[in-house]
């Protein structure tokens, strides 16, 4: 699972600006993410889906886009990604789940 970003130009603008302005902070943040990812037995696809679900639950459109984009790069089927939005209906509520579905569709419509 590729959760490290080598080039700050590949980051959303605010994160890229932070990475350029404070490279030490960005490096430590990236290292924390890597350590958390490697700390347990969950396989890479499941980790990506969990991260997508966490992004959905936090209501972060940017993070949903990021995890969908990475998931597609890692070969995760679009229907699997959309299933995350359906699973969120009972927990997040229908309106939030439909927002998440639309954020997922933003990126998989081109697939």
Keywords:
2 domains; globular; 111 residues; single chain; mainly alpha
Task: Explain what you see.
- This protein has helices at 13-21, 23-38, 44-58, 61-73, 78-87, 89-92, 94-108.
- It has 111 residues and is an all-alpha fold.
- The chain folds into two domains: 8-38, no CATH class; 44-108.
- α5 runs antiparallel to α7.
- The protein is globular, with a radius of gyration of 14 Å.
Fold blueprint:
Elements: H1 13-21, H2 23-38, H3 44-58, H4 61-73, H5 78-87, H6 89-92, H7 94-108
Task: Sketch the topology as an H/E string, one letter per element.
Answer: HHHHHHH
State Rg.
14 Å
Globally, the shape reads: globular
Which parts are unreliable, with pLDDT below 50 for 5 consecutive residues or more?
Answer: none
Total of helices: 7
**Helical content, roughly?**
over 70%
Number of strands: 0
**What's the mean pLDDT score?**
90
Query: Distance between the terminal alpha carbons, to the nearest Å?
Result: 20 Å
State the major sheet: none
Question: Domains counted in the coordinates: how many?
Answer: 2
Counting helices, strands and paired strands, the structural category is mainly alpha
Report the β-strand fraction as a percent range.
under 5%
